[in-house]
Amino acid sequence: MALIARLVSLAVLLALWQGVSVYADVRTLPAPSAVLAFIIREAESGDLLFNVGVTLARVGISFVIAMSLGVLLGIALGRSRLADRLLDTPLLMVLNTPALVITVLAYVWLGLTETAAIVAVAINKLPNVAVIMREGARGLDPGLEEMARTYRLDRRTWIAHVLLPQLQPFMVAAARSGISLAWKIVLVVELLGRPNGVGFAINYYFTLFDVTAVIGYSVVFMSVMLAIDALILQPLDAHVRRWR
Amino acid sequence: MSAAGAESTLLTVRVDRKVYRRARTEPVEAVRGLAFSLSAAEITCLIGPSGAGKTTTLRILLGLDHDFEGAVTPDPNAVGIAMVFQDPRLLPWRTIEQNVRLGLPRDRRGRDLDGLFESLGLAPWRERFPGALSLGMQRRVALARALALEPRILVLDEPFVSLDDTAAAGLRGLVVETVAGRGTSILMVTHNVAEALEIADRLLLVSARPASLLATVPLDRPRGQRDRAFLEATRADLAARFPGVIAQ
After folding, report:
1. Could you give phi then psi for residue B84, rounded to 5 degrees?
2. How far is CA A53 from CA A25, A35, A220, A233, in A?
3. Min CA distance, A169 vs chain B (Å)?
4. Does residue B12 belong to the interface with chain A, where contact is any CB pair within 8 Å?
């Protein structure tokens, strides 16, 4: 039922797009069929796979870095009042710095390198993860903490069976919001200073005013990210909530 | 082991004074003069008004709070004390069986628990999550988790509160069996006097905050022979002597 509703809304959107494109200027709003033709052409040449792969790798690496550091930082902030007081202001500053500024500074300080690109994406995403995890670590059940102390649970048992299960919903929330943030930022980072990737391709076709290609690339990449959410993150979410 | 009589004493608790001090609020004196000891194969009920510092006393007894004047001997960590909380405090994301096993030290987690689950009527529920169980059954799981440790002292905080009569009676029976079968010492905190009169060997009556020990009341008649007349007479007598603690 839910699937049918989704497919219907998708079909309506495509029909609307097709309908409007008939009346619009072909150069500014190509028809869905033209975009599909471009995607097939680009896939056959190999460029599509290469650019999407490169971008996905960047998203993946920076996602892992930002998640692991962000989770650790968030737990520290949620558990220690001192850490929270010391780091709250810097965290807010980074959180409110535009992605563009972080990216430009990363390229200036680290050079136009792969490292700079990944660092820029990771730093953009890390504060969000930390803030979500801080909420999770603050909300730990005091009753279970007392139980853990009364039963003298060792540290490993406590982490695996008391702490992490309480944080899992927050980790999944951070991952889901984080991955969409990461791929939006990674395109800007590629546009500014990388010779490949989806962001680079979109910028290249923009300079040629090839709207079909711009839309084609964004549709493909968006589909890939939606698939990752639907096939990996949502099942993970359902898994951590299975006991409810 | 020293003199006879004292050898069955497992734990002696003496809290001369316990004051909570928090920044920007008046210090609150929770306990002033509360001393008792616990012996094997005995049910002791601690009775007092709500908010009288009973929970504070339990925390001290369990070795969770060291900031008080007085002493707990021997070290509670060495005695073998297990606790059943009022709200069961199970891990909702772990099965019943895992909940019971995780309460055990790592080297004993693999032990055979079939008998325990069977005796508590939990055998069919071992693979279920706590959320699927009623409060009464969750309390049983909490009791199983405590008993799995084979403690010498079992502490129960309001274990029968908000259970229907059948569930409460069932759980009460299990507690009494534990004393009879294993010689465990049981300390039960309650404000249900009728319940205490039914199962306790000894009542500890505690005043309102700051908690101090008003009286120790031994109940000599064996549990099986406490009829309605005995319960009512005892209650009336206690109510006359300690009107602040026990209502008519």
Report:
1. -115, 115
2. 32, 20, 12, 19
3. 12
4. no
